[in-house]
Amino acid sequence: MSSPGSRPAARVTADEALARVADGDRDAFPALYDMLSPAVHGTALAVLRDPDHAAEVTQEVMVEIWRTASRWDARRGSARAWATTMAHRRAVDRVRSVQAQRTRDQAVLDGDRPRAFDVVAEQAESNLEAERVRHCLGGLTDTQREAVVLAYYDGRTYREVAESLEAPLPTVKSRIRDGLTRLRDCLGVAA
Amino acid sequence: MTAPTPRPGERRPDDAATRELLGAWALDALDEAERARVDDLIARDPDAAREARSLLETAAVLGEAMAVAAPDAVRLAVLAEVEHTRREDRAAGEVPESEPVHPAAPGAPAPGT
User: Fold this and answer.
1) How many CA within 13 A on the CB side of residue B64?
2) DSSP H helical ranges for chain A
3) How much is the average pLDDT of B81-106?
4) How many contacts, defined by CB atoms under 8 Å, are there between A and B?
5) Are A185 and B30 in contact, with CB atoms under 8 Å apart?
6) CB crowding A95-121: b at 16 or more within 10 Å, else e
7) Most CB contacts within 10 A, which of A15, A80, A125, B87?
8) Helix or strand (DSSP H, E) at A104
9) By the 8 A CB rule, do A48 and A98 touch?
10) Is there a contact between A180 and B55 if contact means CB atoms under 8 Å apart?
11) Are A176 and A141 in contact (CB under 8 A)?
């Protein structure tokens, strides 16, 4: 698909396009959409596992990016991270409201939805970033990885993670923080 | 539950415990009250804010790794919707410079149609 080394350039361009949109340049938006929407949609789909819900979240988030572009602060992170963060938050809100309607029957959930890590493996198969993430997730302890993956890709609270792993709350809190810190260092995200 | 207005440098007794929540905060894995506690800590403590940002960037990579094209219909819908969606101003106002303040001033030509 994309040539090796095209990603860093794309990252710079997404930042630039978002800055232009923030400056009022309407014409920059379609290109920005094309650069950001795959990460937004992929994040929503990973958490929601439902194409219709994922499409709705993608639409909401991309319009929100248009609307609030001037709030983005390049010093606080990349455009792609900003967009992805927004997508994750919205997807999680949706999972939780759907769960609330379903009276949060964990057994039903576990039966309905494939294990988070399998989904990571399948959906992300062909993507270089996914290769890095899989590699770095592999560097966590099993318990750290389980906690991080359940929280992020399944959209569970750390309390729910603790319940489903039958582990004490403080333990799960630390596993998530330590696991994410290790992941950060492996991925080379600036600390 | 209503926390006092956060002031930079100010400490609270449960700051160390709140800091333990940073990882779960970055993964959107907190309830509302806990999230508010972390947001309050971040507003007061630059070091915690730095850690929070780096963990949030890390979490975002977990999402980016899942990137997959959205349906074409979504692109069409978004591009149509932004045509009539106002952008927030830099000053956090609601009115961009390129659009009229009033939806349609009497007698004025419709903008951009």
Assistant:
1) 24
2) 6-22, 29-48, 51-68, 79-101, 106-112, 116-123, 128-137, 142-154, 158-165, 169-187
3) 60
4) 205
5) no
6) bbeebeeeeeeeeebeeeeeebbebbe
7) A80
8) none
9) no
10) yes
11) no
Contact criterion met (CB below 8 Å) for A47 and A154: yes
B65–A159 CB contact, under 8 Å: no
Q: Side chain identity at B77, as an amino acid letter? A: A
Name the token pair of A148: 């991080």
Q: Which helix or strand (DSSP H or E) is residue B15 part of?
A: helix B15-19
In this structure, are residues A161 and B25 in contact, taking their beta carbons and an 8 Å threshold?
A: no
The pLDDT tens digits of the residues spanning A114-147 come to: 455 555 556 655 677 888 998 999 999 999 999 9
Distance CA A86, CA A171 (A): 28
Tokens of A54: 């994922």
* Token pair recorded at residue B16: 């160390």
Rounded CA-CA distance A186/A148 in Å is 15
Cα separation, B113 vs B101, in Å, equals 17
Query: Residues A48-82: pLDDT tens digits?
Result: 988 999 999 999 999 999 999 999 998 888 899 99
Q: Where are the beta strands (DSSP E) in B22-105?
A: none
CA angle (B39, A66, B24) in 5-degree steps: 25
ipTM beyond cut 0.95? no
Q: Would an 8 Å CB–CB cutoff place A124 in contact with chain B?
A: yes
Q: Which residue has the tokens 């920059």?
A: A28
Cα–Cα distance between A54 and A92 in angstroms, integer? 11
What spatial distance separates the first Cα and last Cα of chain A, rounded to whole Å?
A: 31
